[in-house]
Structure formats: structure tokens, C-alpha cells
Amino acid sequence: MSSAPRTIIDKIWDAHAIATREDGQTLLWIDRHLLHEGSFHAFDQVRRRGAKVARPDLTFGVADHYVPTRNREAIAPDIRRMVDQLVENTTEHGIALFGLDDPRQGIVHVTVPAQGLTLPGLTIVCGDSHTSTHGAFGAYAFGIGASEVAHVMMTQTLWQKRPKRMRVRVEGALPPGSTAKDIALTFIAQVGADGARGHAIEYAGPVVRALSMEGRLTLCNLSIESGGRLGLVAPDEITFAFLRGRPFAPKGEAFARAVIDWRQLASDRDAAFDREVVIDGSEIAPVVTWGVSPEQALPISATVPDPKLILDVSRAEAARDALTYMGLSPGMKLTDIRIDRVFIGSCTNSRIEDLRAAAAILAGRRAVVPGLVSPGSATVKKQAEEEGIDRVFRDAGLEWVDSGCSMCVGMNGDLVPAGERCASTTNRNFKGRQGQGARTHLMSPAMVAAAAITGHLTDMRPLLEGRAP
Amino acid sequence: MTPLTIVESRAIPLALANVDTDQLIPARFMKRPRTEGYGPFLLHDLRVDPQSEASRLDDPAFAGAQILVARRNFGSGSSREAAVYALADYGFRCILAPSFGDIFASNAVKNGVLPAIISEADVETLLNDSMLRSGGLVHIDLAQQILRVGNHVVEFEIEPVWKTQLLNGWDDIDMTRSYSTAVADFVAHDAQARPWATPSL
User: Fold this and answer.
1) What is the structure's pLDDT at A72?
2) Where are the domains of chain A?
3) Which of A196, A330, A375, B178 has the fewest CB atoms within 10 Å of its CB?
4) CB contact under 8 A, B22 and A254
5) pTM of the prediction?
6) Residues on chain A touching B30 (C-beta within 8 angstroms)
7) Is residue A11 less than 8 Å (CB to CB) from chain B?
8) What is the mean pLDDT of residues A410-423?
9) What proportions of chain A, in percent to the nearest 5, are helix, strand and coil?
10) Cβ–Cβ contact A459 with B under 8 A
11) How far is B143 from chain A (nearest CA, A)?
12) For residues A444 and A460, what is the distance between their CA atoms, to the nearest angstrom?
């Protein structure tokens, strides 16, 4: 083992490297493989080869992408087939499944960490780009395609090239009202949606250290929207406290032993990064997106950009195209953008803290537009109901539904109608992402709550005055 | 996987940046098995507009095109391999762009599709090339890492590992199985080194 200073990224990599070929490709051991309904392509590949899942004990299935969020008894047949297919495939291969009726069902990137399956120093893969979420625990977690899913199923390994390393240091302290979502969107707007391509990101600095596990999950979740392969935060006392006592986490002596190992998972002081980005946390305001890429994001106080003032040809045309799709004109205030509905949910922002933040704004107020609130898991839903948060959403006029990927990706039929504009806590404002012709503005849960109350994009900070955030 | 050495065909110019995988295949088409073919759903929601860049996919002047030229950050977003299925089933064997989503590029290679990187300036030149725009043949040589349209020659980049894999039509699984001893040694050692890494209820 090398004694040269190493980053956390390299430490985890080295601990999982089985063999490295002359061409630089390394065979990595995979500690956790997460599956969902979309994994059927990979199961088909495994079947075609007459192979079996090598390590079902390290593989977990979660029904999330297609699950209905209401009236689960009356599922449309084509959706039903997607959910049933996952049951059949996981049963055939002896894989544990958090299925439709399981109390642990939820979005894979919400429920798996909450179950204590995500641990520091693990390699975690899933056929979903937001697998970067699990990096919040100091895990090396990344999304893969169906062919790679099939490869992991058959071998519990994956060929990878060592990524470049990027450190994003967020200095200072966040102003009140700014959240992990705002850090992420600020970073993506700064480096671009392909700015971190080929890199693994370590988020560091006092602002990141001060984030709760929920905040870190949101921050790491959005790594893929900067083009990053993955994003992680070195584990610390906040991580260990979160994990202690979780169902699948190590217990007793084993936990104590694990914490000793996990404490080694910090970048060495002189470890070299290929790229460093420094962000002044005190300058981060609540951010909203105005376009069709997460890089098209600005503080809520800004105005819609004028493509004529963008020098780069490709970026100017992208902005023009975005404004046409979004139905916006250059120079208009972001706070003048009227919305038709709201969505609170997704692997980005559907955890208990997210729901509390939205509820703090909504309490005692009415939404003037319709909206959907889908908690990140059945467990989160239950907790929110115990805290009475569901009443706040219902009393405000929003629909409180079951957990799933829901209106973030619309696969289950939760869609934003064509031409409508949605203030959303999700991760992608891509054309048609929430439904054909739908227009999406990304923002934090409290910002979505504020937009619900006023009917237009709104700075939530004045609405929070005199209230506990 | 079919080896890829030379591609010669018409090339479709797609003057769009950030063509994410949700555009390449909208989520609602992903429930069907691959055997049904994904080609008709490639860029479905953009392609329906006859004024759009993507409408060239249905233009007889570009019939048989196996090459696509696009702007930066092609294939960003969702890891859905169905995006590559749609491209491959349509007939594309090479995508030229200044940058690709990492997961997309990896998925492409696994399906025998070449994600070739060319500079932003070269992309703009190709997008405006009259020969290319009128359905002229583009010649791509993977071994040489060059493309030719008329007398115009452009060099492209590709990860060396992916180049070898595409040229040979290698299969990862067979390669990995030849490492079974190393894997077994790793697992035995790892059980001692990280006893906490195995999940237990």
C-alpha cells in the first residue's frame, strides 16, 4: 500500500481494487447492488447467458420508479407488469425486495440509506444516475447502465477507470434560508452541467461539515447534474450518529470496530486533487432554475438572462431554445414567473427534513395552485404523520400521497400536463421530464412551498420570518 | 458485440447542446422489451416537430445515416441504457460531440456505439458543412481516429480502452471470468479486513 497522501476517493478505490490491467482498467469489488423495476433489461441479459446472480446477499431490490402513489389497488396493467416483473426477478434469484407492500418501500436512494445499508467506505452501484446520493456517507456510489448492472449481477464486480478527483470546498457559513439544494445548484451553474465530467467529487469545507445527513444526501444526489461520476462527503460524528442502531448497520462491537475504520476515510492533508473549486457559502442565496438544464440556474432575486448577451454560440443557442420551451422572455424577474402546480418529492428532496422545511412555510397558509407531496419512503411518510406534518400539507390544499419516484420522472403516471409550469423539488428540469411539454423549475422544498402560496416563484425568506425553519 | 472499425454513411447534424437521455428516449417508452426495438422512439418528442433539428431523423435525404453530430454534453442525465438502444436500433454506430455524459458513453461502448469526442469548433464546422448537410458520405476510421467528409479531415478522441473494446468487439463478462482466482482471493482477504461490510439484520 502506498504511503503517499491519498484522497478519500483513492482510499476507497484502493480497498476495492481486485486487479488492474495494463490498460489501466481496474476490476472493482462492489459491496451493494441496488435494483429497481428498470433492472429488467439486465435480468434479461443474465437469463440469455443462462447465468445467476452471484451475490444475492449483497443485492437489494426496491420498487420505486413505477409504483403508483395513490390508489394502489387499481394499478394500470402496464404499470402493474413492471412492478410484478421486479417481484418475479428478485424471487427467482433470491434477492431481498422492498416491494409495494413492504413498510420499507420508498425511493431507493431514500430508503436504503435509512435502513443502514449505506455505509462509509462501501462501493454502491445501481442502474440509476442518482446513486451518487449515497456518497453522503462517504461511500463510493455511482449510477450504471443495464449492461453494467448485468455484469455486477453475474460477478459482483465492475471494470472502471480511476476517476479524476475534484474537491469542492464550501467556505464560510450558509445564510438563513439557503440549503443543500442551493449549494448544489450554485455549484452546477458555476461549472456547467458537464463541468465535473470524468471526476469523482469530494464535498468539503465548513458548510458541508455543518450539513445534516439529509442535506448531504441532497448535495451528493445532484453530483450527476454537474456531470460528476459521483460525489461524497467524508464520514464524521454526524454520519456515525445517524447510522447507529439502523436495521442493517453493524451492531455493538462490530459497529465500534467499523467506526475505527471509517475514521480513516478522510483525505490526507497533502492529498492532491486534479481540480479544486471553492465556493463562498455566505454568498449562496435560494436558487431556482429558469431553463431546461440544471446549469441554467440563478438566485431568486435575478432576472431571466438575455441570450443576446451570451458570447458562446452553443450556450447562447441553448439559452434561446430553453426560453422558447419555457415560455419566458429575457429580462423578466424570476419572481414574476407564474406557476400552475407544485411537486414535493424525489430522491433529491423528500426526506423528513425536507418535508419539515416545506411545512414550516405552509403552516396556517393555503396553496393557490394544486400540488403533490410524495414522501421519500413509507417510513418517512409514517414519521411525518406522527409529527402532524401531513395535516399541514392537506390543510394547505396539497395532496399527500404514497412514496415513489412519482412526478420527478412521471413513469407511474404522475405527470405535469403539457404547457403547465411546475415548481419542483426534483433534480431535472429537462424538456418533458415531468411530462410531455411540461415546464419545470427546480428549487428547495421551502421555495416550492413559498411558490405554492403565492402562485409565482417567490423568495421564501420573508415568509419564514417569525417561524422556526 | 459486433466489432467497429470503419463507419461510412450519411451523418445527421443535430445542432443541440445538452441532449439528455430523457430526450433520447422519453420515460414512457421504456416499459417494452428490447426485442421490440427502440428505434422509433429515438428523440421522439423533439422529432414530431417538423421544424426541429431532430426531424432530420425522418428526412429521406439522410436515410441510412449511422453517424450523428451533436453539441456538448450529449447523453447527460439518466443512466437509462435504453437511450443507447434507441440510437443503435435506429442505426447509429457513431456519435460525434465535444462531450458526453459519462454513463451514456460507457453504455454506448457496451452496445458497440462509438462516442467520439471532437472540439466545439470542429462540431460547429461539421454542423455547417454543406456536403454533410446535404446527405454526403462521412467516413470514420476508428483505428486512425479520424473522420473525413470530402477533403475535410477531423481527428477525434476516444478512451484507449474503449477503442480497443470497440475494435475487437470484446465482451466484459468473459474477460472478468478469467479473473475468478483474483476475485476469490480478494473476497477471502476482505472478509478479514472489513467484517462490517456485509449487511446483516
Assistant:
1) 81
2) 8-276, 288-464
3) B178
4) no
5) 0.97
6) 38, 411
7) no
8) 96
9) 40, 20, 40
10) no
11) 16
12) 10
Chain centroid to Cα A138, Å, comes to 15
The CATH architecture assigned to A288-464 reads: 2-Layer Sandwich (3.30)
Inter-chain touch A144–B103, beta carbons under 8 Å:
yes
Give the residue from A384, A444, A432 showing the smallest Cα distance to A408.
Answer: A432
The 10s digit of each residue's pLDDT in A223-246 is 999 999 999 999 999 999 999 999
In chain B, which stretches have pLDDT less than 50?
A: none
Amino acid at A449: A
Superfamily of domain covering B6-169: Aconitase, domain 4 (3.20.19.10)
CB distance from A58 to chain B under 8 Å? yes
Domain residue limits, chain B: 6-169
Query: One fold for both A8-276 and A288-464?
Result: yes
CB B25 within 8 A of CB B79: no
Neighbouring residues of A47: CB distance < 8 A, sequence distance ≥ 6? none
Shortest CB distance from B197 goes to which of A25, A122, A198?
A122
- Split at pLDDT 50, 70, 90, the class of A469 is low
Average pLDDT, chain A: 97
**Residue A177 three-state SS:** coil
Q: The C-alpha cell of B173 is what?
A: 463478462
Place of cell 490491467: A21
pLDDT, residue A75, reads 87
A146–chain B Cβ distance below 8 A for any pair: yes
pLDDT at position B70? 98
Q: What is the CATH number of domain A8-276?
A: 3.30.499.10
Beta-strand pair A341-344/B67-70: unpaired
Alpha carbon distance B4, A374 (integer Å): 46
pLDDT at residue A435 above 60?
A: yes
